[in-house]
Every structure is written in structure tokens, then in C-alpha cells.
Amino acid sequence: MNCTPRFPAFLHGGDYNPDQWLEYPEVLEEDIRLMQKAKVNAVSVGIFSWAKLEPEEGKYDFAWLDAVIDRLWAGGIHVVLATPSGARPAWMAQKYPEVLRVGEDFRQAHFGNRHNHCPSSPVFREKTRAIDRALAERYAGHPAVILWHISNEFSGDCRCPACQENFRRFLQKRYGLLEELNRHWWTGFWSMTYTDWAQVEPPSSIGQGANPAMWVDWRRFSTAQCKDFLAMEKETVQAVDPSLPVTANLMHLFWDYDYFDLAEAMDVVSWDAYPSWHIGDDYLEASQFAMTHDLMRSLKDQPFLLMESTPSLVNWQAVNRVKKPGMHLLSSMLPLAQGAQSVMYFQWRKGRGGAEMFHGAVVGHDGTADTRTFRDVTRVGEALEKLAPLYDSPKAPAKVCMLYDWQNKWAIHYAQMGRRENMDYDGTVISHYRALWKLGVNIDFRDMRECTDLSQYQLVIAPMLFMTRGGIEEKLRRFVEQGGTLVMTYLAGTMGEDGLAHLGRTPHSLTDVLGIHTEELDTLTDAQHNSLRWGQRVSRISQVCELIRADTAEVVGTYGEDFYAGTPCLTRNHFGAGEAWYLAARTEDGMLAAWYGELIRALKIPRALPTELPDGVVAQERGGAVFLQNYAPERRIVALPGRMRDLLTDTVAEKEICLPAYGVCVLTAAE
Amino acid sequence: MNCTPRFPAFLHGGDYNPDQWLEYPEVLEEDIRLMQKAKVNAVSVGIFSWAKLEPEEGKYDFAWLDAVIDRLWAGGIHVVLATPSGARPAWMAQKYPEVLRVGEDFRQAHFGNRHNHCPSSPVFREKTRAIDRALAERYAGHPAVILWHISNEFSGDCRCPACQENFRRFLQKRYGLLEELNRHWWTGFWSMTYTDWAQVEPPSSIGQGANPAMWVDWRRFSTAQCKDFLAMEKETVQAVDPSLPVTANLMHLFWDYDYFDLAEAMDVVSWDAYPSWHIGDDYLEASQFAMTHDLMRSLKDQPFLLMESTPSLVNWQAVNRVKKPGMHLLSSMLPLAQGAQSVMYFQWRKGRGGAEMFHGAVVGHDGTADTRTFRDVTRVGEALEKLAPLYDSPKAPAKVCMLYDWQNKWAIHYAQMGRRENMDYDGTVISHYRALWKLGVNIDFRDMRECTDLSQYQLVIAPMLFMTRGGIEEKLRRFVEQGGTLVMTYLAGTMGEDGLAHLGRTPHSLTDVLGIHTEELDTLTDAQHNSLRWGQRVSRISQVCELIRADTAEVVGTYGEDFYAGTPCLTRNHFGAGEAWYLAARTEDGMLAAWYGELIRALKIPRALPTELPDGVVAQERGGAVFLQNYAPERRIVALPGRMRDLLTDTVAEKEICLPAYGVCVLTAAE
Amino acid sequence: MNCTPRFPAFLHGGDYNPDQWLEYPEVLEEDIRLMQKAKVNAVSVGIFSWAKLEPEEGKYDFAWLDAVIDRLWAGGIHVVLATPSGARPAWMAQKYPEVLRVGEDFRQAHFGNRHNHCPSSPVFREKTRAIDRALAERYAGHPAVILWHISNEFSGDCRCPACQENFRRFLQKRYGLLEELNRHWWTGFWSMTYTDWAQVEPPSSIGQGANPAMWVDWRRFSTAQCKDFLAMEKETVQAVDPSLPVTANLMHLFWDYDYFDLAEAMDVVSWDAYPSWHIGDDYLEASQFAMTHDLMRSLKDQPFLLMESTPSLVNWQAVNRVKKPGMHLLSSMLPLAQGAQSVMYFQWRKGRGGAEMFHGAVVGHDGTADTRTFRDVTRVGEALEKLAPLYDSPKAPAKVCMLYDWQNKWAIHYAQMGRRENMDYDGTVISHYRALWKLGVNIDFRDMRECTDLSQYQLVIAPMLFMTRGGIEEKLRRFVEQGGTLVMTYLAGTMGEDGLAHLGRTPHSLTDVLGIHTEELDTLTDAQHNSLRWGQRVSRISQVCELIRADTAEVVGTYGEDFYAGTPCLTRNHFGAGEAWYLAARTEDGMLAAWYGELIRALKIPRALPTELPDGVVAQERGGAVFLQNYAPERRIVALPGRMRDLLTDTVAEKEICLPAYGVCVLTAAE
Known about the structure:
The first copy, chain A, has three domains: 11-183 and 217-390, Alpha-Beta Barrel (TIM Barrel), CATH 3.20.20; 400-603, Rossmann fold (3-Layer(aba) Sandwich), CATH 3.40.50.880; 617-669, Golgi alpha-mannosidase II (Immunoglobulin-like, Sandwich). In chain A, 30% of the residues lie in helices and 21% in strands. The first copy, chain A, is built from 17 helices and 29 strands.
């Protein structure tokens, strides 16, 4: 499977757990009726169903699932079929306690919760393969089934003896000789030198707790473990029918695994998006999720699925707020605008018990369609039908590429420097993304290994590129040389992929491209600030001030305060046919918006709407349609470049359009 | 023992630990002299004395206790005799390590501290029974001994193999078949289905950590374990003399156990009250403790004992403040006003060492009576003598009943919804209580199972009645039908006692009584607010806004903000001969005071003083006497309905009385 | 070794880890060149080198260290030679897991990190002795080697079976009979009485967690363990050459051990000072470190070494800021002014990996001398050469003595009273110290056991002398009787060294000396305050208000608020030929500065500069030279008593001198 799977339509539906309702046959019947009413065309079935599918070791019970899938298909509803490995049944934990995960402090978990299997356990793998095979043999050919949903929200790691052994094997493969491991982990520090592979244990707060390179390798290993497990499940189910595609639902900017790496083991990327609306600024929240949507699209550079979202609220945040009128449609159009092919929910129906019994669902405990949530969901179903022409129009090719790299994120965190626990890589990437998103620009993400060819882009942005890997220095050099515009920031080129700090001047191998070198890293408390003076403007600086020296670069902006007032903070260097910018400090949104605005205009990069948009409003283009979104709590009037038709309402607007609070429209040029 | 025990007088005294002072015979002599001087008439002896009573396994030493009790009795002082099970001796932990408790994470404690026995341990039970029997045989007939004090401040739970086995037995009794347990715990969620009773373990952060119904059952089980242990001790000591009553000292709105249930295993309720004076608003603090006093009185619907309080300060709060002049008498009158029959202290004399060596005591390390604390205590002793006529006048029958239900509290906490960790059941109940207490109204508490007959009440208040149990729906329906006034609030009737969410419209089985049904639950961050508009008034709303629809109810108040502005927030419904109110949001004290003020006036419910009282002043009636209490840091002038005599000073006031800061008087109609 | 070791000069250098760079021979060569350039004359070698020195059990490899030391010596650089016991090699943890420490919760650590050996482990001791002996035999006679650096930053404790056994032995020695232990630990409380030594375990949060006396004894034991280990290493290396002195680097006001006790096991005290400049008020920060410098000097009453400091920034604080221009010289002169004989750094060169790869170093990853840090360090090297005449002029004898006592600190913390976790002993001592430091007064520290002869002092200050020990009452009485001035504060004389509260009036045995006795301890929340009225002045009071009664003392100041307004807060008592002050509340810096200013003037105690200094400026005298230091972020003009020469710049100032921001000069009378 190397091409993008094609589904019958934009998928609309969600997690469906009929196995919790087998004693309520009238509910199961009613479900189909309500799904049809809500314009649901696909549901995810079988997540966490292991105990129902294999109630006793080796004895499968598929009768109930046969009925469920047939009933759905009879109702015209497709099935995303899950493998049940997200939680093992109690009998397995009882008979084979080694399937239970061992924690960070080397203590083994007891039976309970979910996502806590040991990924190395031979018996857990064997049991998973067996049930996956049985499921595939039974359902892979069913016309209702359109996609495999492997396990659920993979997470975490294990330190059991088998995983420890696998960790050592991973390191042996990576380093060959123990001497090489010692060299890269710099074990001379604190006399940590290993003289026997058996001495190497996973990092732990009660063991080896503070070696940065070791921690990064542990995260790489955890990714490899997860990927290997996912690949095993994929192979198992596709051994029966190679044409049925596979996904695994991911989670936001998830810490544990390198998603660029993990995505290689699936055919289509899907993820679970849970914004916290109406807690803080909804526009900021939306930009963060827009970024992750683009990132998910970029993982395989193809359309992705929104596998879970809430039709109303969740139950696990500190404060759980209901969505205000309009917000459900608006927040469902957000992923569509960034390239999603579905709007799916957790969950179809609220369970009567369990940890998430009060998580939002399309159908509540009252069981009726007479709720605001049900009507909101139905409206999204209708919208998806109206937007059907866009299904085959994915997000247009981007001219801007941002680097987001999990291994770099880990390296920054474990490096212990600056503001230590709070260098805020994610927040920084999001703030650069936001400035461009607000401009209506299309953006791709790449990690350092993935960005093999940057020539398709005009602008490459690489915030906080602390750990360089995959020959990124050479790639960026070539990109600029050939006429590209590069933006880099503080921390660039400090460490190598091998875990060792670069020797010599930094940013490593890029000082001539950037025309600067870095000297010191000052960080500020939350109460401290500096300023950037550029042109006639002054912008506030927080958190990080890198002290740099301009060698060949033009000094565009300088620090305004402290003993380094007047020294360079923002520089531009001509190199080859292109130019390279360096921003040495953390600046606020306003500065980024203004600066990128000028860059985008200068580079003539296309925008969804060329006009200035009011606060809270964003426009994104997909397949020639402009998704105009208002995240402000008040109505906004937007000037239009001409007559445009709103696909959602089939109305035409002339010069301007008025969006209500949390309003959205999808505009195409009106004939 | 089914009637209220009668003691010789209001008890005044406290925990007395002569076993710590056996090497200081002059101190033991001096104690008697000082007790007499301080008007002490009863002390609690033997708490934590196991190591002294049984210094070696099976070898009892009662000689010192004989002397102590005889010396006390010779001095005219009664004895509350404790069983020593609050802490086992070191030799027992050494020889029988299974008596040590196993924690939440399945790790066994080492010897140390207190209250950490395993309640299931056969050997701990056997040793407890043996020493209890020996104590009873020796002292039950002693004229000084008036009450058994079982163990001390029962708390916590244990996850050792024996307790796990008991937990499974408890569940077997509750559910019969494992299928039923699976059904009620909704184990289909996250594939948690049990197929063997042996798979069921206690909830744990490293095991099954997130099932609401399981957690509630664990708390029920822990209550049952504690009750069974208490009952065992009670039976043991009363096997010798069934006429000597039994108590166990409780703790505030204690999380671990259902006190309504636990109270069944004792003859008289006692508790340990430790307000934090002078940290925040003393009036708010007083109202909270007044509520708990009323709750303790309500547990068995009979007078209760204040078993511990501090004569000065404690040592275990973050900041420990001394009581300001007047506060000791005032805070000692507070429980009396709510129906207490004693003022007892922890502790008589400060120990020279140990964890609480700086906890306040009647006698300090200086050993003298020449302290402010000793004089304050003596003044309380004198006051109790003056109030002797009230001993046989318990709190008058209340016309208002509030529901406070431990199982409901647990259910709300474990349910994971809304503001998750912070739905604040206790705080909400207290705020409703406070409004009525301020009005001088008598209030009883019931839990859902206990409130078999509500017909004696005019007004029943059921805040946040999330989990319904004991047929409460039917009881409330009947109460309103027959003319009662019912107040309910958000969350009402959401879950059943069986752990499952109610299906259909909520509040379950009460929508016709209330004339409304609930639709959505919005919760707010601490920075967010809404408002209630009722009549000409506007009150602030915080934390919780439930969205409801009025079916037959009259809309008395509406929301002022957000998209649900104008929808019902406060409603009244006529049903049968009565009426039912519903308050859908959390409102502030001012709103509750005004609203309940109108209700109380309309219902003509009697008040201690019918006049408006100044800020900080509260009046409560007991046995025809009005306890007029000033919690303000300034003097207050209170208008009186006529000539009244202050029993404490034997002075008569006409039209008004002036209370100094922290002043108190006990007024009766003057002849 | 009982006299102060004499080194060739003020030492300038730092931790040098060539063992991490053995694969980079060009770096090792470059190191010598750069050290010479930076005026480095001594480096610490071999810290954490065990894995390199003994790569396999019993097989030593000294070749690399031979070369390193020879190369240094050829370059004219001295060596401080470390024993490697700060971290054991991996093979040792693998073969002898008992060398790994057992934690507070009785769980054994896995291999990793540092400073986590078991101090009792026979095998760890044997291995340490063997390698120490081998090092001594090889290098003790090397002309480069001037000092032994034992282990590194001793810390922590262990609860393994061997340590438990040692704990019991320690207690047996201290108490003899178990009955005596029971008596002093007051085990009657909570029935904790021990009947078999084997029942006694270390304190633990999962065992015996709350006995104050036990905790203090545990800290005493931990000190004894550490001291015994240090003594073992000292004896081992000095068995070869008794003339080579020994130090162990200490850490600030470190909690774990009694440094007065520990210092007895070394020949010269050294410590690692890491102020957090530019985070808060630099003047406050400086005063805190000045205090610790004086304390370190006082431990053995002889000059001390600054063993570690950072040449730029650290990497382990929440926010790590670079030093502003001037600050490195200023902060290096601070210890000199208080009596240090060295300025040493962690570390010479930044490692390429490991936990502290981004900790500041003289040489960074760029490997050049062309950095601000390198220039700052060189400037300090030059300054030390200019100050050479001061090497043999230690700090002048002080007339003021402050009591700082580790056991008192522990006792206050474990006692559980007042503001419990926050009585702030260290902060209180520092605030008294600051007032005197600002006045330019020389100050010695003593603990209660050490202060055998107070007659050399005019003023003795004993803040929060909660636990009295070492006969301090008698020492203070004699001091006042003979004409001394004593200052005591709240909490004085409450507990005895034996763990028991003093009986009778407090301050124990000092009520006649002070002319007061204490009655109650009120503590305040952070939001609450009182005031001190003394003379015409009013000062704010925070945190602690002790209520006292003046017996013979003159009341100099009274409380301004609360019910104890008007009662004594500051008193003075004439006793014998001297006088004793008592300050009952925590007052702010302004009050202490004014009050001590009057005392110092009245007592005619000499000051570095008699004039009033501007804010942020401090003057300290050493060997006739005045270290004038400006911690303000702006320049300051200071009036001079006459013509003075700045040793650092060799310039002469007349009436006044202008210090830039963070400026420093070292002034002597100009001829």
C-alpha cells in the first residue's frame, strides 16, 4: 500500500461500542435509526473488544460482531474495524502476568486500565496475532469494512526484562561496540562507563536518570518498539487482504513516539483531536490544532482522517465546557480545511459506566435525538455531503515548509539548559505556524530526515533546530544556495544526532549560510523581558535571548535592553541565490505576524484570501474553496475579492460576508 | 443499647495520657489537682496504650492503669476508657508482620505511626479481642468508667491478600454472579470484563484506577470493613457489661467511610472538631463546623459528644494560630448550641516528645495553671456547670432537612465530569446550610437511605443529588405530594446506586415533580462567571451552569450571560400539595441567604431569633435557650425581642445586648 | 594535621576531566596552553574517574593519569587530586549490588547517577580503600599534587540492612539501654515503645515517619556515617603521606549533615558556591553567600577554599542566566573578602555529553579563548595575582559571633509547630547576618558545641535557638555575666539536646539572663502581619509572633496589633556586667539594620568603612584591605575616609570612588 486509500466519501461517524450494549437489543436497533438520522456513514467497531471477542483463552465469539456489522451494513453504514490490542482481557493478565507493563521505577503494573501491555511479551504478541488473524479472516472481505484501526492510541513504554533485552539489542544494532555507546553517551561523565552490555538498563528515576543521549535513545527505542508492534499487526491483518488499508489513531504532538517514523507503518494517518474550546482564547486554540492537522497530513504527505473528536465536551479536562452554538460545525470544518477526509467522534453513545461514562457522545444517556448535540452532529453530516466535491481535492501544494522534529524536541528537553523544563519547542513552532496560518498560507511539515527535497518550497522555517540530523545542514545549505529563503532561530545547530555537542562554532556547518555565529545563551524568568528593535518597530522578547555575532549578515534588528543592547537579534544573509534569516530571541505573535507578512508578500507566496482579515478570522484554501472561519465570540464582516458562493448554505455573497460568532462558510468563486 | 446514653453532666475534659508520664509521679499527682481547678469531670484514658498494657505478648500490665483510674475517681473525675487498637505495639509488627497495612500501590507499610493496622488480619483481630476482653473484665464495673472509646479516629484501608479476599467476598455478596458485577461496573469499557473472581483486585493507581463504580464499591467495602472491626470491639467489651455504652471518635466530613453506616455500630456518636480560627473568615469557618455538629447529631438522631478539640492551637496545620480572647469559650459553645453533651480536648498535658509534642493542651510544658489557656479552659468548665439545666434539653425537632450522603459524595468524585476534581459537594452543602444556620433555623441531616420518613419536615434540601439510592426518588415525590417544599440543584438524579447512569430524562423519576428536565452540564473555570437574574436581582454564578428546560415549572430566575442567557436557572413547580424548586447553577452566599430567607418566612419555620442579625452574629436555639454567638472581630449590638437573661453571666438584658468580639451569651426569657 | 595548609598562592582553576577527552589528544594539549593563558594555577583531577582508573575489578590503569599530571606540572599547574568514590563503576554495581543505596521508602536504587553508594557496604569500603591507597602510593609524592579532594559533594543516606544495623549500633552507643531510647524518643506516644533493638528501623514515610527525636537522631547518624567514611578515606591516603592535606567539598547550608561535625574529618574546608545572579535582588543573593563563606571559614576557624563556582552560568536551575559584565570578577571577590584562598570553577571545559554538558565552563564547545567567559576568567586570574599580598592575611578576628547550628535546624523542622514547614531558620539567620554584613562588621559562626569560649566576642547573636545543647545556656549566661551583649529571638530554649521539651519556664535556664519568659507562639499566614513599635519607629512583623512576659527586662518595643498589642516584643535586660536582648517576632530587614546599627555603634565594634554606604554596596575588610562591592545594577559613588589605592587597578582615589554596576575594588590606605 503506497498510495492514499480512497474511501466512499468524507467519513462521518465515530467510535461505536455495541459490545457494551449487547443486553439492550432495542438500543442496538435504535442506533442504526439514529445514525442514519445524523448522516453517519462510518463507525469504528471493536476497539477494546478483546474480552468480548475472546472471552476465554482461544475461544472466539464473533456472533455478536457478525450481527453488528451486518446490521450496520444493512443500514448503509461502513465499518472501520479495530484490532482489540489496546487492552488485554483479565484472563490473560491472570494467566500470563508478563503481559503487564513494567513502569519507570521498575515496578510491574497490576491488571487494569488500557494501553499498558508489554510490547515485547512473546505471549502478548502471539495472542494479538491470533485474534487479528481471526478477525481478518472473518471480516476482511465484508463489504462494510473499509479500514483497519490498529489497537488504540499507542502510548508509553515498558522496562520488563524482555524490553530491557530488546533495548540492549537496539543499542547493539545502533552502536555495534560497547565502546561506541560509551563514546556517544559520553559515559566518562560521572564514571558511567559500561563494560558489559548487561549493565545497560533503561533510564529511570531510581537508576540512570540524567544522561541526555541515553534518554533520546530510549525514546527512539520506544518508537521502534511501537512501530514494530504496529507493523506486526498490520502484516497480520493484511496477510489476509493486502488491499484493506491500515491506520492507527495518533494523538496531537504526542511526546512518546516519533510520529514521522511511526507513520511509515500505516497506510493512512488518523488522529484524535480534542481542543479545549471556551477555556482561553479560541483563536489560539484553533491555530494549535490547525498546525497538528497540517502535521498529520504531512506525516505521509497525503490526506488524513480525523478519527476522534468530541461532539460536545470531554470529561477528562480540569474544566469541561460545552460548545457554544456554531462551534461544533466550525471545529469540524477546521480539519477539513487542512486536508482531513473525515469527521469522526468519540463516541457514538455514552456508556452507562466506566471511566468515560460522562464523555460527550452523539447520543446521550437520554437516548434521544432531541438534543443540541445531536442536531449539531447532523448539521456536520449535512455539511460533509455538501462538500463532497472537495473529497478528491486535497490541500494544494505548499510553498512554505516548517521543520518539526520529534527527536529534536526530545534532545532539547533532555539537554538540561536554558529554561530547562520550559524551552517550549512546541509552543515556539506553533507561534511561527500561527503567523503563517493567519496569512492564509499553505504549510507543509517535514522532519529532518524526511525533508529530502526542499526545492519545491520557497520558504523553509526551522525553529529551535537544536539537534541536527539526517544531513540537514547540507540540505538547508543547498536550499538557500539555489534561491530559497531560510528562517532559523536560537539554539540552531548545537548538538549532533549522535548525542554529542558539536565542537567549533555554531550553528554547526551553517555559520556561513547564516552569516552569524552564536556566543551565549541567556534565558529569562517569566517576569523578565527584553526587546527587539527593528526598523521603527519595537517588539517584546520573552524567555530566550541568544547572544550572537554577525559575520557577513546584515543586522536587521537589535536587542533593546541589558548589556547586550544594540547587538544583533534579527539578521539576514545573502548566500548563493537565496537568503537566510536568523532570529536570536523569542518574540511575540505580533512581531512574527508582521515579519512573516512582509516575507510572504516579498516572496509572492499565494494566500487563501489576499485581504486583511479581522481579528479571530482565518481563511484556508483547499481544492479552490476557501474555508472562512470565525473564532471570535462576536460576528465579523469580511471583505471578499468578488462574488462568492458558500457551499454550506448555497448562498452567494457580493463584496463582503458577515460571519456570526463561531461562524464558518466555504466559499468558491460564484459563476 | 438503642437509647441515648446519659452521662452525669456535660462532660468536660480530654485525652489523658498518664502512660507517658509514669516516670514522673509528681506530675500524675499534680494532674488531679489541676483537673479539679479547671472544672474537668471526665478524661479519656488508654488511647494508644497497648505497648504499656501488653508490653510482651500475652503479658498484661494493668497495675499502672488501676492506679490512674483510682486516682481519677478519688478526685471525682470520670473515665472514658479507650481500647488500644489505634496502634499496635512494636513486638506485634515484628512477630506478625501481616498486621501492617498494605497501601494503595500494593506495598506493605513498615512499623510506625498509627491507624495502620490491617482490619482483616486474623491475628490482629484476635489480639484486639483478647486485650479488649481483659480491659472490660477489669474495668467495666469501675464506678469511674462511663463510656468505651473504641480505638481512635478510624481511617484508611488495606490491600493485603486477606483484605483483597474480603473485598471479593463483599462483592460476591453484593452482586452474586460475576456477570452482575461486570454489568454494574460496565466492564465492557476498556475490555475489563472479569471471568474469574480471582481477577478482581482493589482499585489502585498501578492497576485498575479509573472505574467509578468500582471505586464507590471500594469505599463501601472499606466502610464495611471498618464497621465490622468496630462491631467486633463493641461486642467484645459489651459481652462483659452490655450497659456500658460505646463510641468511636469520628472526624469531620471524613472521606474514607460512610459515617451514617458506621454510626450504626456505636451507641453514641462522638467526634473531633478542629476549626482553623483566625486564618480566614471566622464566621465561614464556624458555619462549616456547625454543619458538621448537626450532621454528627443526625447520624443517630440523638445528642453527641465533642470528643476532641484544642484548648489553644494545633500543631499540624500549615500555620497554627493561637485563639484570640473569647474564642475558646465561643468555639466551645458552638457544639453545645447544635446539641453536643461535652467539650473535650486533645490533650490534657503536652507530651515531652512525639509527633504532637507541640499540639495545644490544657497544661503546657511549663506545668502551671498560670496561662491564658488554662484560664480559658476553666471558664468553659464553669460555663458548662451553669448550663447544666440544658443537659436534658436536646436540640429541638427541626423542620428543615438537608440530605448529605457519603455515597453520593464518592460517586460525584469518581464520576469524572464537569470540574472533575473540584465539583465541591461538601462546599456546596455547607453553603446551603450556612444560609439557614444564619437564619437561626434548626436543621437535621439525613442520607438517602436514612430518610425513611420526611413527613416531619416542611422543607427538604438535596444539593447535588447526583447518585440516587434507597428509593430517594419515591420518598421525595411523596414528600412533595403531601405538601412539602423540596429544593434540588444541578446534577440531580444522574446515576443509580448500582453504578450505572440513569437512562432517559433526568433528574431520574423526578422530572414531573420538579417540572423540568436537564439537558447539558456546562462548567466554568475559576476566572469565568455567569449570572442569575431573578426578580429585580442579579447574583453571580460560578463553577457550574446546568442547562435545563422547564416543562411545567414556573421560571423564577434565568441565566444572564452566554448563549443560554434567558433560559431557566431557578424554577418552582407545584406538585400535589407541595412545591419543588430547582437551582441549576452554583450561586453565591448572598443569593442563598435571600432566597432561603423568603422560603423560611413563607413556610413560617421557627427561628432562634426572628430579628435581623448583624454580620458575623448567629443565633441558635436549644432547650429554649438562645446561643447568641459573635464571630466578628468587633463588638456587635443585637436587638432582643424582650428581657432576656444570659445564663453564662446571670445578667439580664433589655431591648438589646452588646457582644464583644468573639463574644457569646446564652439567653433565656427573663421572668 | 592541625594547622591550616598553606598553598603556593591563591588557587585559580577548577574541575578538570581529561578522562572524558582521552580520544582527543589535541584537546589535551590545547588545555595546558589555555590554562596558562587564563592564569590557572591549579586544577582538580580524578573526580568521578573510577571507571577509567579501574576499568576492570582489581586492574588499575594509571597511565593516562600519569600523563595528565605530568603535562599539567610541566605547564606549571598544580593538582588537587580526587579520590573517585563519588560514583562507583558499573561493573561494581553489577557484581556487588549491595553497594547501591536503599532509599527513604526502602527500595534499592539501580545503577546510575552519582553520590549514591551505601556508606556501610563492606565491599564498597574495601574497594574505595584499595584504589585510594593505590592513588596515594602513586601520586602523593608528585610535586604537582598539593591537596586531596575526597569523593565529591557527599550527600544522602541509605537504609539497607547494613546501614540499619549501623543505625541501631549508633543508638545503642548513644542511649545504652533500649529503655533510655524509649524515654528520649517519648515512645509512649502512639504506642511506639520498642522492646527489642531489632524493632528499630530508620524513619520512613512508609514506616515510622513522625517522631521528631528519631529524625534528629537519624540526621546525626547520617552525619556520623558520612564522617566515618570520609575519615576512612583520609586515613587511607594520609597513611602514605601524612603531610598532604585533605578536603571534601561541601555545599551551602546543606540539610543532610552537620558540617561543624563533618569538618573535623578534614584538614581544610572547601565548598561549592552557586549563587543565582540576576534572577532576583543580587544584593540579597550576595549576602546569603557571604554568610555561607563566613560559615565555611568558621567551621575550622581557618581560611577555606572555594572549590567550585561557575565561570558563567549553570544548567540546573529553572532559569539559567549569563553573568552581566563585571559580575564574574565581583562574585569571585566575594569569597576572597570573607577569607577564601581560591577561586575554582566547575568546570574547565564543557563535556560533549552527560547531564552537565551545558553547564558553564571556562572553555566552551567552540574550544576558543575568544569568549566573554574566558576573558572574565582571565581577569580573575590576574586579580588573584595582584591580591597575592593578602594570601597570608586571613580575615581579621571578629567581635561578633552568630550561632548557626545544624542540629537546631533539624530540630525546628521536625518539631512540627508554628508555621510547620516554613519556620525558615536559614532565612532568619541570613537576615540577621545581612544587617551586620551591610555594616561592614566581621562575623564568626559557631554552633552550640563549638562555642566553648565566647569571651573573645562583644556581641553574640543566637536566632531561633530552639534546641539547646552543649551546655549553651551556661555558656551564654557566663558571656553576659562577664559583660557581653547577647541577642536571642523567639523559640529560644524550648527543647533539649536529648529530644525532650524542656519543662518549666522557657527560654530554658535563661529566663533570668533575658529577664523575660515566653508564653505562647502565634504564627501568621503570608497575608497576615503585625507591627513592632519601638521608640518613634514602627516596623512590620511577619510569620512569627511570640507572646512573652517581661520579668526584669526593660520593654524596648511592643506589638502594635492584635489582642497582644502593647505587650513586649523587644526587650533588654541587664545581667551581670552585660546585657541580653530578646526579639520575640520576625521583623524585616530595615528594622534589623537600624537596630544592629545602634548596637554596633554603642559597642564600638570596628567596621570596614565607617561611612554610610549606598544601596547595594557592601564593604568587607580583610588583611587591612577593604573589598568594596557594588551589587546594584547601576553605578554607585562611595565616600572614602582618605586616599586609598585600588589593588586591582593600581589607581588611587581621593575623597570618593565611583563603582560601575557590579563593580568591585580592593582598597588599601594610599601612602
